[in-house]
Amino acid sequence: MSKxxxxxxxxxxxxxxxxxxxxELERLGYETVWLGxxxxxxxxxxxxxxAASTSLNVATGIVNVWDGEPDAAAYTRVTEAHPGRFTLGIxxxxxxxxxxxxxxxxxxxxxxxxxxxxxxxxxxGRVLAALGPRVLxxxxxxxxxxxxxxxxxxxxxxxxxxxxxGPLLVPEQKVVLSTDPAEARAIARGVLAMYLKxxxxxxxxxxxxxxxxxxxxxxxxxxVDALVAWGxxxxxxxxxxxxxxxxADQVALQVLNQDKxxxxxxxxxxPAGTSF
Length: 276
Description:
Largest sheet: 9 strands, parallel
């Protein structure tokens, strides 16, 4: 299977609805646009990106299963209008955001997948946000694969071992194109601050060998550098290659620099199988 790149941003991000930007992403060789920020299950937020592009795949990263019932009709509408170009990413989000509704999240995922099955959404058309082993196994058994968020190449290797060969594995990777350590880490910490309060992520990082000290005071340099790839283009490409070598099929880049297109131009195209 070829190794590819995608881009990741909020579903409402204007640049990922701009036909000129999307055409350039296609020319650069990016394969998928991942639309985050818990887009609604009715999928109306993904249609502008699909309509404004020609060959890019579009995926949700992710529809939050607590925000409503499975909407198989929306999936059918989107895939009939744009055959072969849409993947439904779903996940449980975070207890701090969901509140009292966040009970038995694994059972909620199973129930949601059951609803997609009943509505005729194919296994091949959906992926699951997965950090821990149990949900990764569910992704293997009930979906086309996994879309882990805010992880490391070490997690990618663990995820691939659980998924085995075949299922799709697309980790999200935050990047800052800057060779100034102070600048790069300041940008990274500004984004990571909210995630340091979310137990789904902090528990995953602790399982990877980070400590409570790494999570304190805005995150240690060790944690920040592990979660956010920064440096020149070659340094960031090395992180991309580390995910590929660990078993990722695609790496979804979330650019933290203000000029996002400047960064995606610097990093693409990246030919399949390239090693750095």
